[in-house]
Amino acid sequence: MASSSKPQIPIIFTLVAFLLILSSSTTPVSSHPGRRLQANQTLRPHQELKKLKRVKSYLRQINKPALKTIQSPDGDMIDCVLSHLQPAFDHPKLKGQKPLEPPERPKGRASNESISETLQAWTEAGESCPEGTIPIRRTTEKDVLRASSARRFGRKIKRGVRRDTMSSDHEHAVAFVNGDQYYGAKASINVWAPRVTDQYEFSLSQLWVISGSFGNDLNTIEAGWQVSPELYGDNYPRFFTYWTTDAYQATGCYNLLCSGFVQINNKIAIGAAISPRSSYKNRQFDIGIMVWKDPKHGHWWLEFGSGLLVGYWPSFLFSHLQSHASMIQFGGEIVNSRSMGYHTSTQMGSGHFAEEGFGKASYFRNLQVVDWDNSLIPLNNLHLLADHPNCYDIRAGKNNAWGNYFYYGGPGKNSRCP
């Protein structure tokens, strides 16, 4: 976790609840639009029992036996799971394997970067996971039951990459480069706790490593922080990852909620809350994120902070990304569900527009990409896109202290964003 200065410039179903449902055949179900039963439908007890059985089965699959469990002050349970028992090794192509040794890091990574102590709430009491284990945020019945189904839990419902200006419930303020072959990306991302006004919306800030067309073959690797009440049950900004190889249809997931990403680090829990966070006109904090392709084995590695190697996405997970990325994207994304009939008041970044600058607007700094020679290089031909600029916008710059950077975000609903 880095402190930055101004640049030069559950719902657990009990027997009682079941009996209440059983006593009435006309109990209406209130939920999010799109997840709501029709008014003349009822919630049938046997359907609810089937759903609960599916949830319990899923939890047995995803929650692995723990050598140690840590109670986080924010309510999370962090399980210390033997590294070779993590969800990744449920994958047929990884069964029986062990995590790989660290790869060669990209050249040009600042030699004076110190490995800073990155704080997550679960570590604040001095607790840690033993060597040979990895920390995994335990998934609960409450978590899964917030989703539309156990099958959809941990997955993005729709695409999360902006490629046009057509209206969508996903809105973005992003900077991107394309037109070349890219082997990774790096940035420092300002951390805030934006307000998310609907359970089924989110606000995130991340980098995307992208390849393929924007049809059903889209490959992405994503990492950053997000506030997602549906996924986590609260409004804390959390370190997260995502991947897909078919445009968010059937492959991929958040964090470690499916077999795929292989974690090697015992100090960082993917999906756990980040602390401290930035505040308006006060101290600013950011996290370093780097994703790059190991030139020797071709896997995509993730670094968090100033040197904590988190783990990797095996290259066989992907089609186009087995070779290289064709686009790198940085920035913010929100979901605007219009659940009240007008634009959401969900904030992006700090909730303030880019023009307010340091200490007020959220930023990305030191944007870089990794080239064919495994070297970090500055960006050329950076493009900016805010698809709803009256709601969320973006402004870029460059200087010696921050390299390529930009401010972005906004409040959502306002007089210019009805």
UniProtKB/TrEMBL annotation:
Residues 164-418 form the Neprosin PEP catalytic domain. InterPro entries: Glutamic_endopeptidase, Neprosin, Neprosin_propep. It comes from the Eukaryota. PROSITE patterns: NEPROSIN_PEP_CD. Residues 1-31 form the signal peptide. It holds the Pfam family Neprosin. Residues 90-114 are annotated as: Disordered. Keywords: Signal. PANTHER family: OS06G0474500 PROTEIN, PROTEIN, PUTATIVE (DUF239)-RELATED-RELATED. This is NEP-interacting protein. It comes from Perilla frutescens var. hirtella.
